[in-house]
Amino acid sequence: MKIREPYLFLGFLALAIVFASCKKKDVVTKQAELSVSSSEELFTSEGGTSEVAVTSNSNWNVTNSAAWCTANASTTSGNGKIAFTVQSNPATSERSVIFSVTSGSISKGINIRQLGKTILDSIAPDASGMSSNAVQLAAKIRLGLNIGNTLEAIGSETAWGNPKITKAFIDFVKQSGFNAVRIPCSWDQYRVNTSGTDLKTDWLNRVKEVVQYCVDDSLYVILNIHWDGGWLDNNINSQNQASVIEKQKSFWKQIALKMRVFDEHLMFAGSNEPPVDNATQMNILLSYHQAFIDAVRSTGGKNTYRVLVVQGPSTDIDKTATLMNTLPADPIPGRMMAEVHYYSPYQFCLMEQDASWGKMFYYWGKDYHSTTDPARNSNWGEEDYVIDEFQKMKIKFADKGIPVVLGEFSAMRRNSLSGDALTLHLASRAYYAKYVTKQAKANGMLPFYWDTGGLLSRSSNTVLDQQTLDALIQGAQ
């Protein structure tokens, strides 16, 4: 017996090992397996349905959702399918959403992409909401405000110290007595890349959003290409003429396509203050204006009848009266306006420090001269000068059925003054605003006051300069 016992012991030990091994196999959890037949599904703007197969050896689920896309699983255990249903995309921009398919610790993503609606480069003319010609439209514009130093700011909308334009601010502009706005706008810095002329969809959408704020309030809008880094202003020459025309056409075609839905409340202005000093430069500027007209009209729809604004040389009244003897050709008659600006006398409106050739003016208007500081009285450019200048535009354009936009005018506030001097200066400045506005209206010109946030606060939606606001409203009556 003693000889057998070691063998019996070893036998029992072997059986125990086999039994333990079998028990261990019984408790091992199977490794989860998960795969999907596609990691991305692309839909056209029209939408539709698509199925993605799921292969799994265990339970799984699909998460995420979008208002425009739904996912329905045939099962959530083992192999199955997910049916994606995508609605029509009314926007021109692409959209996407990622759905996650998860089993245990394994997750697979399915990116659902949908292309934006294609805008036809040209559609049939659409006269709905576009019944007013330039003269009729001008009669509806009482008083305009520039939203300056914002959408044209180089760097971003807020780069020059103003907050983003809000619907509440536009509401306040209307509440304050304006029925039109001019939106200076930059475009070149918002190209998709520096080697092309395609504009970023996000920026086009943002500008359209601001225009929509205005149109929703029944405000008339002038949207322009402002200085914009100088790509046009610095190249009014034959050497760069062809490339400027190409960019002008490309930018305006894209702008016009994006804004084509708006009715006559929206007008386009081809540039801002193009510097021109002679007839040769004037002819080149006219070619830039022609590129603008052609690009907008080529898009059809409401743009066929949209009122378009072209700028005089340097938007200077004297240069415009002398050099701008023809306008670009337009296939739609009676749908064009001209534009000039007015900052005269310079010493009163813009001059920030004395120079060897002259001093700053603090007081303007025959009844607003200082008796204690006569060296600061305006010695030119007062009431009679305003009348003479504005009559030049009346004779040149307004009397011929071409309204003139007075796109910018204002006079700076002299904050260094105090006491009686400040009181007289502010009264004089308000009188200037009222007189210029009144004479503009009397001579077929549409006054748009230049403001960068000093008249109406963009952040608090309050009036910061009630005296000037009252003067503008009185002048527009």
Give the termini separation: 130 Å
Rg, rounded, reads 34 Å
Spatial shape: elongated
Provide the β-strand percentage band.
Answer: 15-25%
How many β-strand stretches? 16
Low-pLDDT windows of residues = 6-10
Mean pLDDT: 93
The order of strands across the largest sheet is 9-10-11-12-13-14-15-16
Computed structural class: alpha/beta
As a percent range, the share of helical residues equals 25-40%
- Give the count of helical stretches: 11
Largest sheet: 8 strands, parallel, barrel
Q: How would you classify the quaternary structure?
A: single chain
Could you give the order of the helices and strands? HEEEEEEEEHEHEHEHEHEHEHHEHEH
Topology:
Layout: H1 5-27, E1 34-36, E2 40-43, E3 48-56, E4 61-63, E5 69-73, E6 80-86, E7 95-103, E8 106-114, H2 134-140, E9 144-146, H3 167-175, E10 180-183, H4 201-216, E11 220-224, H5 241-258, E12 266-269, H6 279-298, E13 308-311, H7 317-323, E14 336-342, H8 346-349, H9 383-396, E15 404-409, H10 419-442, E16 445-449, H11 466-476
Parallel strand pairs: 2-8, 9-10, 9-16, 10-11, 11-12, 12-13, 13-14, 14-15, 15-16
Antiparallel strand pairs: 1-3, 3-6, 4-7, 5-6, 7-8
Helix pairs in contact: 5-6, 7-9, 9-10, 10-11
What characteristics describe this protein?
four-stranded antiparallel β-sheet; eight-stranded parallel β-barrel; alpha/beta; elongated; 16 strands; 477 residues; 32% helix
Task: Report on this structure.
Residues 6-10 have low confidence and may be disordered. It contains 11 helices and 16 strands. It has helices spanning 5-27, 134-140, 167-175, 201-216, 241-258, 279-298, 317-323, 346-349, 383-396, 419-442, 466-476, and strands at 34-36, 40-43, 48-56, 61-63, 69-73, 80-86, 95-103, 106-114, 144-146, 180-183, 220-224, 266-269, 308-311, 336-342, 404-409, 445-449. The strands form 3 sheets. The chain has an 8-stranded parallel β-barrel with strand order 9-10-11-12-13-14-15-16. Strands 1-3-6-5 form a 4-stranded antiparallel beta sheet, with no helix packed on it. Strands 2-8-7-4 form a 4-stranded mixed beta sheet, with no helix packed on it. β10, α4 and β11 (220-224) form a beta-alpha-beta unit. 38% of the residues are buried.
